Amino acid sequence: MLNFFLCLARFSITVWFGAAVMFVVLTVAEILSGQFNSIVLDQLILTRFPIYYLFTFVLLATSWISGVFYWRLSALRRAKLFTILVSISLIILISDYIWVYKPLEDMLTPAGSARSQEFPFYHKLTEALNTVAMLINLTASIVINRTIKKIPAKN
User: Fold this and answer.
1) In the prediction, which pLDDT does 151 show?
2) Nearest partner of 107 among 92, 125, 129, 133, judged by Cα
3) What pLDDT shows up at residue 147?
4) Residue 33 burial (10 A CB sphere; 0-12, 13-18, 19+)
5) What distance lies between CA 99 and its chain's CA centroid?
6) For the chain, which ranges sit under pLDDT 50?
7) pTM of the full predicted structure?
C-alpha cells in the first residue's frame, strides 16, 4: 500500500503542475496574440477557469489524500512536508476560488461588459495567489519525486 500512495501522490501532483503550466502558457499566449476581442477573451475565461479549478481541486485533493496515507504509513519526514505543502496550496487555491475568482466571474458576466474599478485588484491578486500555489506545488513535487533508496515502514 505504501508504494501505491507514493505513486499516486507523485502522479497527481506532477500532472497538476504540468497541466497548470500548460494552462497558463496557453492563456497568456491567447491574450498576447491580439487575435481575440474582449468578448471572446471574457468567454474563454468564463469557460476555462471553472474547468481549471475543478481539475485543480480533484488532483490536489488526490495528492493530499495520498500524501496523508503515505505519511501515516511511512517514517519519512518528506511525506509530512509534502502533505503540509499541498495543504497550504489547497487552502490558497480554495480561498482564491471563493473570494477572488467568483467576484471576477461576476465582473465578467455578461462577457464583454465594462469592468469595474476593482477588476485590476482582483486580477492581480488571483495571479499572485496562483503563482504562489504553483511554486508551493513545484516544491511539493520535487520533495515527493526525489529518489528513495529504501522506504522505511512505520512500526
Assistant:
1) 63
2) 125
3) 74
4) exposed
5) 16
6) none
7) 0.91
Domain residue extents for the chain:
2-145
Question: How high is the pLDDT of residue 71?
Answer: 95
Query: For position 150, what pLDDT does the model report?
Result: 67
Report in angstroms the alpha-carbon separations of 33 from 8, 63, 122: 37, 34, 23
Give a three-class secondary structure readout of the chain.
CHHHHHHHHHHHHHHHHHHHHHHHHHHHHHHHHCCCCHHHHHHHHHHHHHHHHHHHHHHHHHHHHHHHHHHHHECCHHHHHHHHHHHHHHHHHHHHHHHHHHHHHHHHCCCCCCCCCCHHHHHHHHHHHHHHHHHHHHHHHHHHHCCCCCCCECC
Q: What per-residue confidence (pLDDT) applies to 123?
A: 94
Name the phi and psi angles at 74, rounded to 5: -115, 170
pLDDT tens track for 132-153: 999 999 999 999 998 766 666 6
Pull the grid cell for residue 58.
Answer: 480533484
Determine the length of the chain: 155
Pairwise CA distance, residues 130 & 120, whole Å: 15
Record the cell numbers describing residue 114, joined without a space: 465594462
Grid cell digits, residue 155:
512500526
